[in-house]
Design brief:
Helix content: over 70%
Shape: elongated
Distance between the termini: 54 Å
Number of strands: 0
Low-confidence stretches: none
Largest sheet: none
Number of helices: 5
């Protein structure tokens, strides 16, 4: 806690680092969750990708304000492009999920799963 207060007032001796690892983890986790979510809902994965977008934009703002060094800008710009591509992928997954829902794919799928679970329990 005291280190965070020192950093807040500029008294910390360390160089601030961009949160590239956090963005990467959110991005990968979000894409995996959105893809796996086609079975029921891709929304949680989409939310993770949107959080990754929010974090990368905040990091770019930190570079523009001078808080982060300018040499991390190319890595952050590349990461921003990856996040934009992931948002497009998630939108595509939402469209696919909507089509599957409208075509009635989920009713027989989940009905079969529920019947098997009930039979296994009895």
């Amino acid at each position: 806690m005291p280190e965070e207060i020192d950093e807040l007032f500029g008294e910390c001796t360390g160089q601030p680092e961009p949160r590239i690892g956090l963005v990467g983890a959110l991005l990968v986790g979000g894409l995996v969750a959105a893809t796996a979510g086609l079975a029921c809902s891709s929304a949680p994965g989409g939310i993770l990708v949107l959080v990754a977008w929010m974090v990368v934009e905040k990091e770019l703002d930190r570079v523009e304000s001078g808080y982060l060094p300018a040499e991390v800008l190319p890595r952050l710009k590349t990461l921003q492009r990856l996040v934009y591509a992931a948002v497009l992928v998630v939108i595509g997954l939402f469209v696919i999920q909507g089509l599957l829902f409208c075509n009635g794919v989920y009713d027989p799928l989940w009905e079969g799963v529920i019947v098997r679970v009930v039979q296994a329990l009895t």
